[in-house]
From TrEMBL:
GO terms for molecular function: amino acid binding; ornithine carbamoyltransferase activity. This is Ornithine carbamoyltransferase. The lineage of its organism: Archaea, Thermoproteota, Thermoprotei, Thermofilales, Thermofilaceae. It catalyses: carbamoyl phosphate + L-ornithine = L-citrulline + phosphate + H(+). Residues 151-302 form the Aspartate/ornithine carbamoyltransferase Asp/Orn-binding domain. It comes from Thermofilum adornatum. Residues 4-145 form the Aspartate/ornithine carbamoyltransferase carbamoyl-P binding domain.
Length: 319
């Protein structure tokens, strides 16, 4: 089987993304029906490299590998020789001789690209400064569950238009037919070098969050200060607050009651979103978090066992 990486969803077609979402929903149904452990990847090992802290990504990908029968091994950058200056290309060539897949959460997307270039096994982006494809898969799985469709659904993102989560949300959303609006301050609007001209030309961008949320099916936000941006905290909070906070006053302008509120977590409650909104009946943030598990399973199977559904009935389950 030819090696396939998942660094950004730019490299995946609409049909492939839909297949991943459909598989994710099937895997969730199987797990809820009692088929928690599947031996589909028995005998395989998965390496996970973490340069940044992680809760949902580490937990979901670890559990996904384990429940599929693979053995997950987690490395921090300090535990590898990366911290002492070993080239990324050398780490890639070594780890890919031990493991069947490498997943990495990195500060620089370019390091992820080099890891993939020199690895002989699939490489998965667990988050970089530019993209977070696994998050967007969980996001669209959640939208599909809650809204019954993605095509034509209006998604309004309020906050940092250069956000890595938003970049992946736009790329996948344009491919899937979502109507995306971004409300950001002028200095933080989506960038063509991160999103791509072909995607940027198909979304709406405004400085007015109140106009942006009108008739939205989905209101999405993320932190104003991401990991690695701590030195910009004062300037960023000044630019975003209070105008771009997702709060009850902003949500009054949606004009409908059946919208959902999304956040990739962790949330800085009181900054980009209020505690009241996170805990509201419209919030689906914890459904999003759960779906990180199911979409991680789908990605692992897509890259290591793409024919899994054909053989599912023949595979033994272990309880």
């Amino acid at each position: 089987m030819k090696k396939r990486d998942l660094l950004t969803l730019r490299d995946f077609s609409r049909e492939e993304i839909l297949a991943l979402l459909q598989d994710s929903i099937l895997l969730k149904k199987l797990r809820n029906a009692g088929a928690k452990y599947l031996n589909l990847l028995s005998g395989k090992t998965v390496a996970m490299i973490f340069e940044k802290p992680s809760t949902r990504t580490r937990a979901s990908f670890t559990v996904a590998a384990y429940e599929l029968g693979a053995f997950p091994v987690s490395y921090s950058s300090n535990e590898l020789q990366l911290a002492r200056g070993e080239p990324v290309k050398d780490v890639a060539r070594v780890l890919s001789r031990y493991h069947d897949l490498i997943a990495a959460r990195v500060y620089r997307h370019e390091d992820l690209e080099e890891l993939a270039r020199y690895s002989s096994v699939p490489v998965v982006n667990l988050l970089s400064d530019k993209y977070h494809p696994l998050q967007s898969l969980a996001d669209y799985m959640t939208i599909l569950e809650k809204k019954g469709k993605i095509d034509g659904v209006k998604i309004t993102f309020v906050g940092d238009g250069t956000d890595n989560v938003l970049n992946s949300l736009i790329i996948a959303g344009v491919k899937l037919g979502a109507k995306i609006t971004v409300a950001s301050p002028r200095d933080y609007m989506p960038r063509e070098d991160l999103v791509g001209k072909e995607y940027l030309s198909k979304i709406q961008v405004t400085e007015d969050p109140y106009e942006a949320v009108k008739d939205a099916d989905v209101i999405y936000t993320d932190v104003f200060v991401s990991m690695g941006q701590e030195k910009e905290k004062e300037a960023r909070l000044k630019a975003f607050l209070p105008r771009y906070q997702v709060n009850s006053e902003l949500l009054k302008h949606v004009g409908r009651e059946d919208f959902i509120v999304m956040h990739c977590l962790p949330a800085h409650r009181g900054e980009e979103i209020t505690d009241e909104v996170v805990e509201s009946k419209n919030s689906v943030v914890f459904d999003q978090a759960e779906n990180r598990l199911h979409t991680s399973k789908a990605v692992l199977l897509h890259l290591l066992y793409p024919e899994w559904t054909k053989y599912l009935g023949k595979q033994p389950l272990h309880q």
